[in-house]
Each structure stands twice: as structure tokens, then as C-alpha cells.
């Protein structure tokens, strides 16, 4: 399990907190480690209650997820409350939610940002997603090169890889010795991530919120421009990642359309605060943002105050 996959943050902006019902409302679902997660929230008298929800279906097969992290409620002005947690949920658990209570009233504008940072320490009994396309020996008939990664072999077409990636075009079709080899070894790559990368090159519907960040590293490494475009479109129109995560990705990979899309979806000071966040040490998460995005957020905040 990669770091990008087993550490994640769920963020949800809640407005009109004082008038919330006493039954649970939920954020959109987000999958990490092939496990669905949500934020739940409600008002219980003078308490604003937030929930980390593990939505893995109960089955006849035993499974267990061990997590730890921090639940936060951040206000528009940046003040916040936070509580660390350890949360173990299993197929036979009585509860699949972790509740944290915060006293009301919260803020003058009656708005709160729920932010739950999660580290998945271990997962048992939950399988990885099935492969969409087979690059094993069954594909040997249609391949002219084998890419070997940690002992796993991928039977692929040189020509197709070359049309999708300038790296592979140079490596396999140029004057390098690899171009004459039947088996080419690639190092320092996770085979599971490379499987998804290859599926993406073949325009399979393979991207998820769990794998997008790992795949983007390979997309950049191998200079696969069409795959990069598909990743950007996924983040714009399908992903449940927070605006904060999307903006960080937009800056890292120079996705201009994604950046514009995210900024156009920021409509309040609370949305800006959700992007900026607040660390335990009281420093802004925005200090880690690209300077141009930090400048855009500042301009937006001035516009929303006028």
C-alpha cells in the first residue's frame, strides 16, 4: 500500500449548522484502498457531531481495517478544534462509524469545515480491484516486447507504447539497446500502478481516487500526454477528491483547466478556508500550496468580502 493511498483527508463544508436536523447527513463517497468512506454529521442539542464512516459492505468474508488520524472542525476565520483517534472496523463490528462531538455555537457565519485526516495502518480481507485489461501471457500473441517489473511481465506493443509516450518512443524505437531486446526491465516502479497506467494508455475506465496520484507520477515520468489529459478530465468531472487536493495536483502537474475549474467552484470564504485548511500547529495548509494558487485564493477572498 503506497503512502498516497493509505493517507488521505476527507473535507466537507457544512452551512447553516445551527439548523441542522438531528439525523445524519452525509458527504459524497470517496474510495481509498478499495474501501468507500464518507463524512457524516448532525446536530445533537448543543453539540455538532461529526462521523468518520467506513462504508465497506458487510459480507460473509471476514475483513478488518485499522486506522488512526485526526478529526477537525475548522471555522471560516481559521480557528479550529481537533481530536486524535484510533478506529478499528471489521465485518462483525457493531458500529462502522466513529463519532466526534464539538460544542455549539461554532461561528458567527454558522459555517463549519469538517476535515478528517486518516491513516490506514492495515487492511485484511479486502481484495485489490480487479484488472480491467490483461497484459499477461494471454497477450503474448499481440506483443513484440515484454516489460518486466519486480518479476511481473507485461506483454505489450512497442508501436502503441511509442505513440502514447515519448519516453517509450525513445527507449524502444530509438537507438538504445533496449529497442533490440525482447525483455526490458523497468526498476523502482510498483507493478500494480504500472498495470493501471497501461490500462489508461488503452483508454480503459481505470482511474479512481485511490490510484490517480500514483498513476500521475508514471504519466509524468513517461511523458504520456494523452494519459495526462484523461487524468485532468477525471479530476474535473468524476473525482470526489477535495478542492484542496485537486488544486495541489493542478499546480504539481500544470493542469491549467483543472485549476480554473476548481477556482470557479469556490463561492464562499468557507470554501477558501476548506482549501487553506489549518494544521494542528495552527499554521495554514495553504503554505504548502503553489504560490500562484495562494495568490488566486487571496484575490478571491478580497472579492468575496466586497
TrEMBL record:
Transmembrane segments: none
Domain of life: Eukaryota
One Pfam match: MATH
Domain BTB: 143-210
PROSITE patterns: BTB
Protein name: BTB domain-containing protein
Lineage start: Eukaryota, Metazoa, Ecdysozoa, Nematoda, Chromadorea
